[in-house]
Amino acid sequence: MAGHPGRVTPGRVTLHDVAAAAGVSKSTVSRILDERLPQSDSETARRVRRVAADLGYIRDVSAASLRRGKTMTIGVIVPRLTDTAMAMLYEALTKACARSGRFAIVATTDDRPKADRMAAETLLRRGVDGLVLSTARQDDDFPNDLTQRGVPHVLALRTDGRSLSSVGDDMLGGYLATRHLLDLGHRHIGLIAGPSYASSARGRVQGYRQALVEAGVAQDPAYVVESTFGIESGAEAALALMRLNPRPTAIFAVNDNTAIGALSALTRLGCTVPGDVSLVGYNDIPIVGHLPTPLTTLRVPFDQIASVALDLLTEEPAAVIDKIRVSAPTLIPRRSTAPLSPRGR
Predict the structure, then answer these.
(1) What CATH class has 73-168+302-327?
(2) Do you know which InterPro entries this protein is assigned to (predicted)?
(3) Which fold has domain 170-300?
(4) Is 262 exposed, middle or buried (0-12, 13-18, 19+ CB in 10 A)?
(5) 170-300 matches 73-168+302-327 in CATH topology
(6) What is the pTM of this model?
């Protein structure tokens, strides 16, 4: 049945929907919205672009690929490249792409949902074959929006629990970090917990709690301090933990950046690591093994996560059985953790 002018059928907005709403032919809409052609400033062109924007039209990447051939480019959206873990993910994705003749293009969004949408639209307009996003948030349903529009995409490092995802086993990592500190005799273990909107942070918190329960150690909510993933936030969280009575004798930080911030704050307080406080990070970014006190941390297999993400993105959807694929981290003990000293008992 032909669509009624101005009426859009539910689901992904198509060229036909835009044409019907603008009162022009589908071929006219296709020509006006083709970024490869010079932009027309006619009244019709302005109306078509306005209608397309109002309807939320995004070019169908998969359909365009069938018509024109794949561009062999992948769009990668990360919060920021100053976060070394995100830079390592992007580098791992570029290597995985290169092995299959593809090329990765990155956009950063400072972990802002509106910026995620703008970045995705910009990358799609440039003809990428699909998106890899490390910006999934509990409080935002952007991946579902992409699904409704038919945009191929995969989540990496963070998941919404529904979309195709390649992530680390964050619950296992949080458990291993906390179990390591428990095995060293620590019982007052502070947690710099990261932001609750990120599945990676929530998983590490769950692992921390599971280890305490198994060891029969009472959980004190005051020992769990939410933070961002940044260095300054890690320092602030460590200062808050060290104001507690009793003070923690060990701290598990949600990532290496917050651990570096915690180390700085502890140094300013005159505390030694690990003499006064043992410290564990997460991700094993390159610098932490070369600090004056090398950091105990969890090594995340970024290369494996990236390869799996690209496999998920390029597989036929019907062939995907496990939508969320998990890669295990590895505990890397270094000199920032030590047995509980007698003065800490």
Answers:
(1) alpha beta
(2) HTH_LacI, LacI/GalR-like_sensor, Lambda_DNA-bd_dom_sf, Peripla_BP_I
(3) Rossmann fold (3.40.50)
(4) buried
(5) yes
(6) 0.79
